[in-house]
Amino acid sequence: MIFFLIGFQLYGQNTRWTLTGSLEGEKGQILQSATVTLLDPLDSTLLAFGVSGASGAFEIRNIRKEEVMVQVSYMGYAQFSRKIQRPENALSLNLGKITLMEKTEELDEFTLEDITPITIKKDTIEYHAEAFKTQPNANVEDLLKRLPGVEVDQEGNIKAQGETVKRVLVDGKEFFGNDPKLATKNLLAEAIDKVQILDRKSEQSQFTGIDDGQREKTINLKLKEDYKKGFFGNLTGGYGSDNRYKLQGNLNRFSENQQLSFLGLSNNINEQGFSIEDYINFQGGIQSFASGGQVRITVGGPGGGSAGIPINSGQRLNGIMNSHAYGANLNQDFNKNTKLRSSYFFNQLNHQITQDTERLNFFPSGDFTFEEKSIQDNQSSNHRLNLIIDQKIDSLNSLRSTTNAQLNQTDRFGRSISSTKDMDGNLLNRGERSNLTFGNSYQANTEMLLRHRFKKPGKTISANLTFGINASDYEGILYAENEFFGTEEEVEILEQENTQQNQNLNYGVNLAYTEPLGGRKYLELVYNFTQNRNEVNREVFDRDGESLTFNKDLSNKFNAIYTYHRPGVNISYNPGKYNFVAGLAMQATSLNGELVLFNESIKNSFTNLLPSMRLNYGFSNTKNLMFNYQTSVNEPGIEQLQPVINNADPLNIFIGNPELRPAFNHSWQANYNSFDMGSFVNLFINAFVNFTENAIVNSQSIDERQVRTIRPVNVRNNTLVGGNINFGFPIKPLNSRFNLGPNLNYSRGFNLINALEDQIKISNIGGNARYDFNWKESVNLGLSANISTQNTAYAFNPEQNQLFLNQNYNAEIGLNFLDKYAVSWNFNYLKFNSRTTDFDESIPLLNFSVSRLVLKNNMGEIKLSGNNLLNQNIGVAQRADINFIEQTITNNLGRFILLSFTYKLNSKLNPMNASGTQGGGMRMMQIRN
Q1: Fold of domain 17-116
Q2: Which residue, among 290, 276, 293, 260, has the nearest Cα to 347 in the 3D structure?
Q3: Which residues contact 833 (CB under 8 A, 6 or more apart)?
Q4: The whole model's pTM is what?
Q5: How many C-beta atoms surround the C-beta of residue 460 within 10 A?
Q6: Domain definitions of the chain by residue range
Q7: With pLDDT > 90 as the criterion, what percentage of the chain qualifies?
Q8: Other beta carbons within 10 Å of 27
Q9: Which residue has the higher pLDDT, 483 or 702?
Q10: How many CB atoms lie within 10 A of CB 865?
Q11: How far, in Å, CA of 189 to CA of 841, rounded?
């Protein structure tokens, strides 16, 4: 294919030609940044486009078509259109001066032929949705996939111009907080008039008018006027084999001053559209560490992975899950000075997991294997409320209040059987554990931001007051029976009950003052004060029959106060093409803690200087270079400092270290981003270096019974170096696009294993490649591969070095035919291989669906889908850390067939109304991409 494409490109080079010209208004004024678009006269497919320069001149190169349609658009002027032919015996054509007429009321009527697919407005790229046709009932995610320069992966993550999109707005307003997928997966594509892609400045930069160089890639969805006059949305219901079901719907009512949305879902097919925060709540939050339930301690270190329930981002979930959720979002502009942003979300999850784990551990004293079979039944419910009020007091003063609150209820049961053997297969220990944890937690945080802008441009002062509370109340029951083998066999039985109440109170103030120094230079003075008050009361009781005995050694009651003072100064320079910010802060931290049960106190104070620097250079609107240097301090937490034993897993004991010092981190990062608006070629390069002094890691020691004790310690330093590249380019004659993304990470760190310091080096090399083919609305083909390999090298014994390879291949195809039918296939092949353990596992996954549009105006859709047709009901994970390599096999949802029906609601809640778009019918378009 590569040789074919090269040959095709070389063949086409001889026929390419260039179009030039210049633009002016009817009064002779120069028109800069006007959009010049070339379309195929046959089907209005976008071929190329350019932008006029400071003199009004434009140039579009590498035109292949013999005949093109030229369209010129500029805000406030009537559109210019002309069909032109490639000049004979010439490689260029100059159109001379093109004069645009100012728009009048007679010229304001909208026609399909007047659609310009893409418009550039300074730093904003605007796509006209009508020019990128989608199927009826498609969501915004389907629309984004058709936009040049925009990519949406399998998990629904969005990239625009090579950068990850962090936020999706609807008519400039937040939609259910800052989770982009809630908007792209729930809003109808046909409701969108324009898709705007912009680099959103920080809140502070928008207020002060001083560009601090911080950007956030953002998509703003502008709705059609028809969808601001009533309700719209859709409802889906499905039922299938093995009593599998799916219910999902959304309902929206948008107007100029109000956005009201409702979402709901319920299913038992492992689908749920929640963010990572919901999963943290599902796990019971950070309180699960000390709740007395089953705790899987992840040993830190360079390149360390994380354990637990995987985040659902569209990928295949492990275990069996039932999901129920609903929510409401209300954005209200009461007037130009008062604005409300609010949302409420509830979700309930039931997750059942069966898991087999095999781990090969490397120690200087000898290696051993660990095997575990476990089951988990986790149930959780979560309520989440967000409220933002923006009040503009007058032209110089404003007030912004932000509040969010959560209530979590958790019920977790786990049971496991494990064994440890030496390399000769001799049994060293065997354990069986059962645990139950139940309780609830809540948290509330509020901020009050007061801002004042002086009459002198750039001179501002702001104060941000913060207050938060986080509390939890959990109970736990633990039963453990452990057998130890060796010179003397021993059986240890633990029956314990525990209760734990946590309460954290934090409050603070952040002051910022900016002063213009002249010559586009600015001074910023900042001061931050924060205090965290933490109270923990954990009581552990040993059970003997019906009696309970208080266990002081495992119980813990402490009070801790962390206080931060951080004054700082920043100087910025914004001459135009670039901005430069340099800063220096001093952070003074003090800790006062009291271990009530042991009548001991912990006192520490740390003072650090924190320099920072940021450089942002814009070569153009579509080419940018950023360099960033930051320093930070990672103080040890009270749990890490207190010498209290946590025996939630009796074979893996955790104990704190009161001699810990704070870790100091240096972080360098460089990004280069380039996007060619004419050829749609994007290049994104990211490189970073993290260097941590006095790094805090978890040391390990193992006794003769193979019981592991984990303790946080300081080591000399840890280093992490890495980078990734994203390169995407289209092949327009083949309606195709390629994306390549190699990446590399290398880390070097130190750790203590049985009191011996060991240096560990971990290198990760991999990347992804994707090919997409789209032919009008009829055929969509996607092929992708994601490969990663990890090599871990140990200083104490190079023969124990680890190497494993993870591979993921995917093929998806969609066919639309006869105006009403659609067929799709998705094949995913996962392969896991380890040279260290000879582990080799493959999982092929196949999904299929066929659908038909029904009812008047295609208001309904019937779909028959087959999921996991090859019935692969396991999930596999493979990871390596500082001294082990581990493979995990988890149960998964097997094959099932689902028949579903989707019903689309129109903007007036009258699905049988056939009056244009308000009747919900498909709009017939002549322009498509």
Answers
A1: Immunoglobulin-like (2.60.40)
A2: 276
A3: 804, 805, 806, 807, 839, 840, 841
A4: 0.75
A5: 23
A6: 17-116
A7: 36
A8: 7
A9: 483
A10: 20
A11: 40
